[in-house]
Specification:
Layout: E1 2-5, E2 16-22, E3 28-31, E4 34-42, E5 45-49, E6 52-56, E7 60-64, E8 70-74, E9 84-91, H1 106-114, E10 119-122, H2 127-136, H3 141-157, E11 161-163, H4 170-173, H5 178-191, H6 198-204, H7 209-220, H8 224-242, H9 247-253, H10 259-270, H11 274-279
Parallel strand pairs: 1-3
Antiparallel strand pairs: 2-9, 4-7, 4-9, 5-6, 5-8, 7-10, 10-11
Helix pairs in contact: 2-3, 6-7, 8-10
Pfam family, one: HTH_18
GO molecular function: DNA-binding transcription factor activity; sequence-specific DNA binding
Domain HTH araC/xylS-type: 182-280
Length: 282
């Protein structure tokens, strides 16, 4: 699995851009300097946002802050329905506009700040949101801007929402050290099932293990092993929800070497045991 930094094209005479796109099987974890609102019109699969791995389906709506790593991977598609999504990208610079300093818009700024961890909204088949997003993809000028504010107004009213990723120090991740961080993430996702070795990980960016640990903590806000544990738990949660594999088998596939550690870290992260988590999907 790859990890790259994307540059999103937004026309010079626009502050944001909305597109209705085919949902492709994207196994490349990527990031960009734009805030993203992603709505799944049709299709199911696995979503990676930061260190969170979970499922997505039709009606899934996620708001992600700038520079938050993410990707959407398709599961077996319905041959009668083409996977589609509506994606809005806009620059953080729009938030510096004097207009957004109005008291009435402060809650929008707060919501976008919270999106640094990714926010999933439970909207199911909300036709109002879908219709506004479709209108956004075809609008121009003032109508476009008004529709975007309408979307945020609806998002602020949704109570059923959750943050997806653990906090990451995004302002540091994609600075002068972007290539190093990219390589570390790629190493983790390529080797998570086989086993993560600190010396191997540090050698990927030509650092001694001690220097590597300090570097990673400084740039992400969490230790390297904390990040690895989060990814492992996310992978285990996916397998528990999607398969009938034995919990012991899932334990080893997720990179744990004994069941006790697996049960402990899973409950610490998810608040329930693996068995209890699986029951929620049955």
């Amino acid at each position: 699995m790859e990890f790259i930094f994307h540059k999103i094209y937004i026309p010079n005479n626009h502050s944001f851009i909305t597109r209705e796109l085919d949902l492709t099987d994207d196994t490349i974890i990527h990031s960009h300097k734009n805030i993203e609102l992603n709505y799944i019109v049709s299709g199911t699969g696995r979503r990676i946002v930061g260190d969170n791995i979970s499922n997505f389906e039709k009606g899934d709506l996620v708001l992600m802050g700038a520079e938050l790593p993410h990707c959407w991977e398709l599961l077996d598609a319905d041959k009668n329905e083409k996977p589609r999504c509506i994606v809005t990208h806009f620059s953080e610079e729009i938030l510096l506009n004097e207009y957004f300093k109005m008291p009435e818009l402060q809650n929008i700024l707060l919501l976008i700040n919270q999106a640094s961890r990714g926010i999933q909204f439970k909207v199911e088949n909300d036709r109002e949101i879908l219709n506004i997003l479709l209108r956004l993809s075809k609008s121009e000028g003032l109508e476009y801007y008004i529709s975007l504010l309408q979307i945020f107004n609806l998002l602020l009213k949704i109570e059923d929402k959750k943050k997806l990723s653990n906090p990451l120090n995004q302002s540091s991740i994609f600075s002068n050290n972007i290539e190093k961080i990219n390589k570390i993430y790629e190493y983790v996702f390529l080797n998570i099932q086989e086993g993560i070795n600190l010396e191997e990980a540090s050698s990927v960016i030509n650092m001694a293990p001690s220097s590597f640990c300090r570097f990673f903590k400084k740039k992400t806000g969490i230790t390297f092993m904390e990040y690895v544990k989060n990814v492992r738990v996310g992978m285990a949660a996916k397998l528990l929800a999607e398969t009938d594999k034995q919990i012991t088998e899932i334990c080893y596939e997720s990179g744990y070497n004994n069941l006790a550690n697996f049960n402990h870290y899973f409950k610490v992260s998810m608040g329930v045991t693996p068995t209890e988590y699986r029951k929620n999907f049955r």
